[in-house]
Amino acid sequence: MSEAQKATKEVAPKKEAKVPVKMDLEALSGQGTENITARDTRLPLLKILYSNSPVLDEDDGKYNDKAKQGDIYNEITGTLYKAKEGVLAVPCHYNNTFNEWQDRGESLGRPVAIHTDPTIMTKTTRGDDGKDRLPNGNYVEDTGNHFVQLLNENYEPMEMALIPMKSTQKKKSKLWNSMIISRKIKGKSGMFVPPSWSQVYRLKATKESNSQNSWYGWLIEFDSILDPAKNLDGLQTSKSFYESCKKQDIFSKVAFEEEGKTNTKKVGDNEATPF
Questions:
Q1: Nearest alpha-carbon partner for 160 in 67, 96, 234
Q2: Nearest alpha-carbon partner for 93 in 245, 248, 252, 253
Q3: Rounded-to-integer distance, Cα 77 and Cα 60, Å
Q4: Does residue 207 register a pLDDT over 80?
Q5: Which of 29, 150, 204, 267 has its CB 3.0 to 4.6 Å from that of 219, i.e. a possible disulfide?
Q6: Residue 117 to residue 142: CA distance in whole angstroms
Q7: Strand runs (DSSP E) across 167-240, as ranges?
Q8: 70-93 residue pLDDT tens
Q9: pTM for this prediction
Q10: Helix (H/G/I), strand (E/B), else coil: 92
Q11: Residue 205 and residue 218: Cα distance in Å, rounded?
Q12: Cα–Cα distance between 173 and 217 in angstroms, integer?
């Protein structure tokens, strides 16, 4: 290399590395979803995984190699919560329904009808399979529906979901309701029951059994009351979900399809059925 070439190389300007452009995603929150309304979304089921769950089937597209029986699973987001660790949940709304189902193979993937009048049960007879059958051949399940706001371990709102409790888990539903209405704290005018949407519970799954079967059921533990001074965002989100459940036909938003797919055991074997 000549002296002139060396000199040219030494004085040649260095190319500056391109600096990544910073983007504030928080400031752009909501872009692309302007036209998505409540009618365009689905409310997931939060359920305990059983042996017949698609998530545990290696040949199913929903298979998750990290999932085990007893784990708690969000049907839409795919979020998995381990049975022993559980998840924090705020019970925002509750109602009891009598869900009418067709048998597998005939089912549309969701209840044929969701009845609110308990007298529907007087029209049923107990079939040989242990199911409460209507004259049309469909069966009815007495179901406690818990609409919950899930929180992370910092008590920040994450996902909303429905937990339907039926069969052997209906007693857990009643227990949870009793815990909610029995919880009292001291206010300016004395003791009072705080709104359910301010109460936090840890939901886990535990193994249960009888003389014929074993299954996983809900384990419900009181955790805390959300403090407005520390958890205002969580309280506002839970209250908003409560109000939404009260105002609209919330069941039309529920993703029942997977419930229908795994609802295959006889009610006589209901300890092994989902929920």
A1: 234
A2: 245
A3: 16
A4: yes
A5: 204
A6: 11
A7: 185-187, 190-192, 199-209, 214-225
A8: 999 998 889 999 999 999 999 999
A9: 0.80
A10: strand
A11: 5
A12: 11
